[in-house]
Amino acid sequence: MGTKTVRVGIVGASGYTGGELLRLLATHPRAEVTVATSREYAGQPISNVHFNLKGFLGGLKFSQLSIDQLIGKCDVVFTSTPSGVSKDLAPKLVEHGLRVIDLSPDFRLKDPKLYEYWYDFTHGAPDLLSKAVYGLPELHRADLSNARLVACPGCNATAALLSLIPAVESKLIDLDHIVVDVKVGSSEAGMKPTLGTHHPERANVMRPYEASGHRHVAEVEQELSMLSGRSVRVALVPHAVGAVRGALATSHVWLADSSTDEMTVWKAYAKRYGQEPFVRIVRGGRHPDPKYVTGSNFADVGMAVEQRIGRAALLAAIDNLMKGAAGQAVQCMNLVCGFDEREGLYAPPLRPV
Amino acid sequence: MGTKTVRVGIVGASGYTGGELLRLLATHPRAEVTVATSREYAGQPISNVHFNLKGFLGGLKFSQLSIDQLIGKCDVVFTSTPSGVSKDLAPKLVEHGLRVIDLSPDFRLKDPKLYEYWYDFTHGAPDLLSKAVYGLPELHRADLSNARLVACPGCNATAALLSLIPAVESKLIDLDHIVVDVKVGSSEAGMKPTLGTHHPERANVMRPYEASGHRHVAEVEQELSMLSGRSVRVALVPHAVGAVRGALATSHVWLADSSTDEMTVWKAYAKRYGQEPFVRIVRGGRHPDPKYVTGSNFADVGMAVEQRIGRAALLAAIDNLMKGAAGQAVQCMNLVCGFDEREGLYAPPLRPV
Amino acid sequence: MGTKTVRVGIVGASGYTGGELLRLLATHPRAEVTVATSREYAGQPISNVHFNLKGFLGGLKFSQLSIDQLIGKCDVVFTSTPSGVSKDLAPKLVEHGLRVIDLSPDFRLKDPKLYEYWYDFTHGAPDLLSKAVYGLPELHRADLSNARLVACPGCNATAALLSLIPAVESKLIDLDHIVVDVKVGSSEAGMKPTLGTHHPERANVMRPYEASGHRHVAEVEQELSMLSGRSVRVALVPHAVGAVRGALATSHVWLADSSTDEMTVWKAYAKRYGQEPFVRIVRGGRHPDPKYVTGSNFADVGMAVEQRIGRAALLAAIDNLMKGAAGQAVQCMNLVCGFDEREGLYAPPLRPV
Amino acid sequence: MGTKTVRVGIVGASGYTGGELLRLLATHPRAEVTVATSREYAGQPISNVHFNLKGFLGGLKFSQLSIDQLIGKCDVVFTSTPSGVSKDLAPKLVEHGLRVIDLSPDFRLKDPKLYEYWYDFTHGAPDLLSKAVYGLPELHRADLSNARLVACPGCNATAALLSLIPAVESKLIDLDHIVVDVKVGSSEAGMKPTLGTHHPERANVMRPYEASGHRHVAEVEQELSMLSGRSVRVALVPHAVGAVRGALATSHVWLADSSTDEMTVWKAYAKRYGQEPFVRIVRGGRHPDPKYVTGSNFADVGMAVEQRIGRAALLAAIDNLMKGAAGQAVQCMNLVCGFDEREGLYAPPLRPV
Question: Taking CA atoms, which of A338, C268, D147, D348 is between 20 and 30 Å from A223?
Fold first, then answer.
């Protein structure tokens, strides 16, 4: 992209991910938010919903979704919509030359049939599925530079994949018995109040959900299968726990060679992630904890090996709204636009929080 | 026991488990606390430490540990001490005819060598190890009635075992790939302040600990091996999460027969636990959550089967200080003393909390 | 009442206060719940809503509100309804000889005009207002024994009054500048999810609400005016803070005689509350904190005097669902029915929690 | 200052305020941290203590405090030390031409005798007290530009003052009955674990502390007396509540003219703070809540008037580690160094968190 600054639209800007995109882009040196849509809040100032943004983003107000407006005022559009919406919207924007960074699941899976199984819809743009780039820079950086349509990973999938990629690539683990136990904060459920997210019910929980099969497992299996060259099945169970932000993937694996020690595993991770701007490897008596990446785009990754029984816990901690959603989407935007990948994103996490 | 009321001593009464024992026994209709020891607080009123107990337990004060005093004033003694203490203390009390209910790990493992591996000490009373009864009533109720020495399970072990017992007994699962991912509240770490339990550091965490091997796995493996008649190895990783009370075991298992459905698993649990006074089976779109057993001695147990890949999540939720410690110890005392097992314990959990 | 056991109905049993009444009455030795109404959940088992009560209360199910059924099956009825409901319902029940314990505001205020100012309705039973007894046993114990209609105080009012009663009675403070700053947990808002109670928005808050005048101030002013024999006006501001249960009233007062010391204040409180079964006076470097009364009917009361400027902080901490609602209502029931005031209620708080 | 970039030293860099200074300065475009002292952690990498800073600040390590080193390597020094330390240290640094930004209480009070009353020490540099500038830019911006020694306000004092300044300046309130009720998160207590900050004890609290007189009241009274031209006494009581970050001052005041309405008060605030870069006035059915300034240097200010009884609640919400400590200190540094006041600080708060 030749222009110094990109004009950005956000579809679905009143939710938490939309708010986080607005927060990041409000101070991004090379982006300007020109459109922020919201059905419910159209016409209202951004800060009526996102109290934290009072004083930022000029006089920007929410507007109704208008494809013409997006085409006329934006170079890049983030779609932060429920599943099933962007599959119809994105093709139109791409067709008009816009770059689309989709935060919904609609373009993550290459196999259209999986949308019927996991998302209960028939995909209307199966051709675009193959062109969409899965927006995990640690896996698809090169492709992202040329992407017209980016399918950003789910937050649980991001954590799961980052915990597992080096182990799978280095063939360190038994691919038939991978268990990913994920813990997440309440912001993952979005902004709509329900009894399950009502504070008296949600505080202090340790609550498994979708324990018989969580949708994000589909993209984890897809990417791990691509990495390993064989079909990989994963047991993935998320748990709501007592926090607002954060996602931790604890991948419980059995070692391919039961004599593998922790140093060997660490070396594989250190080598694989050594140049990654947003992955930090945690060692020294400490394990990754989302608490220490809050507000940032970092993924902290670590491992623990129990040689006694030839198993390991492979760990990845992210802020679900950042590296798990808006931060990673902006990282993708930077790549798509040819900016420095760290632009507008490279700041330390908050602590304590 | 012929007496209507037992005289109870608590060794290590100033910690959280000691406080919970005091709370329960303060209103237990058939017990009277006559001795409560504390090195640090000897001479002080109970409520100086346990603020909640102000107005209860008469004028009881903490005293220094004295074996003579225990022998003279108690029928039953609870030992709530760090590992390595009761292994020397309990034999003396048992020798004098007292019943000992040990909440430490010192008598949980039948194989004395395991104490060297997991607890860094050589056991001085290996003969008592075989006589001690592992204090999980759901496994050893009959033996508990005659026990002189009860070894109460660790809280993580209690949750892990209760989640797995029916599945193992019914041979429903692959015994070679059992993963138990445990989430616990901060009270599990006890009452001593450390940087890790400092509120700004402990709030909102999702923090794995002892991820290369947690001591409680030894008793879980012992009991599951006894149940299944073969050696069972378990991958168990606890995680500190944002709550004060509670422990949830999520046992991730692969089904022995991949076509097993959830109803089959449920039936095994319903049959096994149907008569248990403190086990409740949770179904109907909901999973066990320690939040809903807070303050009670109940274990809520549940399951989710993913037939797609032949796996299940087997779940048990407890209050770590109750069914995971003091509550279960009182349940054992009731059995040891020939009382109704529910005496002083059978009340609903608090909600919301 | 001659019968050993009272038959109890609960109108509005599916909310938090209803659930807490059910929890308490499930183990109350002299009460049996025969009716529990809920518009939304009629026909469903209690434990579908109150997960904690699984296994208790026999097969009791929620039913639709039926006055005939209440009259036929109950001796005492608790009404736990929104403001404006029991003002019409209670008279009918009282007329048929039932005792009514109203947890709504409908009978708290003696002056019917105050309902128009604070509650936006015209009271249809102004005669009953004068007969209703304000259900704070610490103020109206004698009247409660003969009450046919009890108007239980609001939770903020309970905490405010208990913090102030001895100081007002003993004429220790300037009645023209009383400020009551209240902090409350999220359960005070009830069970209906809203954006304000959505966990990501409600966690970690320090949020004033109804800061220009909270309804509970009306009953506080009424009772303090009665106590002092003059009109008293109070500045009362509640704040939502990060907890599920609890209410703390910090009453900031200026001393009538600026040389009054803390011992003098303490003596007034110790004398006034010395015989109260559910009031505990906290001293010794510690202040009342709702955390240490959780799950119990206790009010912890305390004080701090700053002689430098002649002021004091008078403190009362309660569990808002217990002494602030259901617990106090059961305490009133015990009095109304001639039971020991502590029946079914006298157990220590939970700690830590 | 002529140089483009200032070299910064931080004395006491291992605490929370030190960590927050490091976090802010790590990305500040015109500052470079050259020295970070810590007695306990000297020789260790910054990220051993401040996990969030892994990957930032180059290879900076903690060092022992050395005045020579500070003089040789720094232009500006932040002192984040316990009370009583910088009163001896700062004079030496100032003497050598360094600018000192003191985050301790040692130079906040103009009257040396107040140090004996409130801080139990005799001040050894009373002359410097008069030259030190109280670091609240909203009160002393002009003086800060030329300050050699800045005394940053306490966090409770910052919130209290920002809530009250316009009301006092505009003579809207009764100066004889000001009550400031403050709520704070756990990070205010610093990084040293104690029983009071132990998570099981600190979670969910509503706990008044130093209720007979909190030290910060001295600086509040000093500044309000200066503003009003008469002696002002304030009742200030802080309360620990369930959050990690945040401080809310609820200033309960009686209106000088009881007919004053909310619009009048709002106008005074809007006028006074209209040009302030880090003060935002909150209205529209919402009140200030520290939750919505987390991670930022903003103070959100608001008000509620109860005309019924001629009183108001004047509110200010800050992040105690930012506008209440490190953020405000950097704001002062920007002023002292002639930078744009917003440099390195002007970013939106995080939400939700």
Answer: A338
ipTM surpassing 0.90, yes or no? yes
- In tens, the pLDDT along B124-165 reads 889 999 999 999 999 999 999 999 999 999 999 999 999 999
Residue D352 Cα, gap to closest chain C Cα (Å): 6
Q: Do domains C6-152+325-336 and C156-318 have the same CATH topology?
A: no
| Of A80, A121, A86, nearest in space to A107 by CA | A86
Strand pairing category for C178-184 and B6-11? unpaired
Which pair of tokens denotes residue A239? 């748990």
| Residues in B touching A290 (Cβ below 8 Å) | 206
CATH superfamily of domain region B6-152+325-336: NAD(P)-binding Rossmann-like Domain (3.40.50.720)
Q: pLDDT at position C3, please?
A: 52
Task: Name which of A54, A245, A295 is nearest D280 (Cβ-Cβ).
Answer: A54
Do D177 and D347 meet the contact criterion of CB atoms below 8 Å apart? no
Does B239 sit within 8 Å of A205, measured CB to CB? no
Report the C-alpha gap between D157 and B26 in whole angstroms.
45
- Residues 6 or more apart in contact with residue D283 via CB below 8 angstroms: D266, D302
pLDDT in tens, A283-332: 988 999 999 999 999 999 999 999 999 999 999 999 999 999 999 999 99
| Token pair belonging to D166 | 């316009």
What's the angle, vertex CA D243, arms to CA A203 and CA A249, rounded to 5?
Answer: 55
3-class secondary structure, D178: strand
Q: Which residues pair with D151 in a beta bridge?
A: D102, D134
Catalytic residue among A74, A152, A155, A337: A155
The dihedrals phi and psi of D288, each to the nearest 5 degrees, come to -60, 140
Please, are residues A185 and B241 in contact by the beta-carbon 8 Å criterion? no
Beta-carbon contacts of A142 under 8 Å, excluding residues fewer than 6 positions away, are: none
The better pLDDT of the pair D1, D146 is held by D146
Domain ranges of chain B: 6-152+325-336, 156-318
The predicted model scores a pTM of 0.97
Give the DSSP per-residue string, D249-277.
Answer: EEEEEEBSSTT--HHHHHHHHHHHHTT-T
Nearest CA in chain C to A190: C200
Query: Which residue ranges in chain A fall short of pLDDT 50?
Result: 1-2
Q: Which two tokens stand for residue D278?
A: 């880090």
Q: Would residue C155 show up in a list of annotated catalytic residues for this protein?
A: yes
What mean pLDDT, rounded, does chain D reach?
97
Residue pLDDT, tens place only, D274-311? 999 999 999 988 999 999 999 999 999 999 999 999 99
Model confidence over B263-319: pLDDT tens digits?
Answer: 999 999 999 999 999 999 999 889 999 999 999 999 999 999 999 999 999 999 999
**E strands in chain B:** 6-11, 31-37, 76-79, 99-102, 133-134, 149-151, 178-184, 206-208, 234-241, 247-254, 279-281, 299-306, 311-318
The residues with which C311 forms a beta bridge, in sequence order, are C254, C306
Six-digit token pair at D139? Answer: 């009160």
Structure confidence at residue C56 (pLDDT): 97
How far apart, in whole angstroms, are the C-alpha atoms of residue D15 and residue D38?
9
Beta bridge partners of A180: A236, A251
B222 with B236: CB under 8 angstroms? no
Q: Do C186 and A200 touch (CB under 8 A)?
A: yes
- Interface partners of chain C (CB pairs < 8 Å, 3 or more) are A, B, D
- Residue linked to tokens 């008793």: B219
Question: Is C156-318 CATH 3.30.360.10?
Answer: yes
Q: How far apart are CA B204 and CA A295, in angstroms?
A: 14
Tracing tokens 């001896």 back to the chain, one arrives at D88
Distance from CA of B246 to the nearest CA of C (A): 10
Yes or no: say if D192 and D126 are a contact pair by the CB < 8 Å rule. no
